[in-house]
Amino acid sequence: MTFNLFLLTLPTQGGHKHRLPAPNNNLKQGETDMYRIQANPSGTRSIEVSDEHLQTIKDHNLLEGLVDSNGIVDEQVLEKLKLNIRSLLESGDGKDKALLDLCLDVIYHPNMKAFGLKRLVTLFDEWKANNGDEQQPTEEA
Fold it and tell me: What are 9's strand-pairing partners?
């Protein structure tokens, strides 16, 4: 499996730009792929997203119907996602470790704004297209 996902473009001196490579497949057992999404237009802030985070988004259908038909992702959409997750956590007694990790690492990350959410949606769509049904279902305790 190869990953051609989401290269982060960073500005450098002299106006030139360089790209960070997409995640590689040379992982040791137990390690996961990490993706870096750009969190602001200037590229000075980023958020790391793992395969587990993306799988959690898929398992809970967190992005399903989140963005309106106009396709605009703004702070209200981010707030709607946070409220949906908060509701899931409250109804499940907060025992879903994967959902808690997603909240702490991505959704409630200090750098997460509407721009970052738009990048997360794009990353998730690409990840879902590349992984399809290859991901095995997680075991529930």
Answer: 19
Question: What would the pLDDT profile of 71-122 be if each residue is shown by its tens digit?
Answer: 899 999 999 999 999 999 888 766 789 999 999 999 999 999 999 999 999 9
Torsion over CA: 60, 121, 123, 28 (sign): negative
| Contact predicate 37/116, CB 8 Å | yes
What is the number of residues in the chain? 141
β-pairing verdict for 17-20 and 34-38: unpaired
Q: Which residues contact 95 (CB under 8 A, 6 or more apart)?
A: none
pTM for the predicted model, two decimal places = 0.71
Closest CA to 47 of 33, 35, 32, 31: 35
Distance CA 40, CA 23 (A): 21
